[in-house]
Design brief:
It contains six helices and two strands; from the N terminus they run ααββαααα. It has about 140 residues and is mainly alpha-helical. The protein has a two-stranded antiparallel ribbon. α3 crosses α4. The longest helix is centred in the last third of the chain and has 21 residues. It is flat, with a radius of gyration of 33 Å.
Length: about 140
């Protein structure tokens, strides 16, 4: 038993490394000859098909046809309107992601302060020739 453990520990093939003798031979038979069958769908395709499938629902006494994804958004909005806090949180996250609030323009006081700062910076730059290239300073 102890000899087996020593044999495993003393192996030159450490964790994550394998003996090159066990590697697949180039040009040899495939280790997975059947592979994935042609025509099988990946997860992304299955997701799209499931949520883009059209269904008929009864909303406000009228029959409407919409995708399952659209219906999910309608249900979140309806639950949030009815006071469901979890649905309200989901709606808030969706609003922040897809309908962010527009940034307010700066106030006249902020604009004046920014302009004064810019003028002071330009004046210092010209006074000390900080950002001028050597060619411009010589000529």
């Amino acid at each position: 038993m102890d000899e087996e453990k020593k044999a495993l520990k003393s192996s030159k093939w450490g964790k994550g490394k394998t003996d090159p003798k066990t590697w697949w031979k180039k040009g040899g038979p495939s280790p997975n000859p059947m592979g994935r069958p042609k025509g099988t769908k990946n997860q992304k395709t299955l997701y799209k098909e499931a949520f883009e499938q059209k269904i008929t629902v009864n909303m406000d006494g009228k029959q409407k046809t919409m995708s399952k994804k659209e219906l999910g958004y309608h249900q979140v909005a309806q639950k949030a309107a009815n006071g469901d806090l979890k649905a309200f949180q989901i709606q808030k996250e969706l609003d922040e992601r897809y309908d962010p609030p527009k940034a307010a323009p700066p106030s006249p006081e902020d604009s004046t302060a920014d302009y004064a700062t810019l003028e002071a910076w330009i004046e210092l730059r010209e006074k000390f020739h900080v950002f001028k290239k050597k060619d411009e300073a010589d000529g």
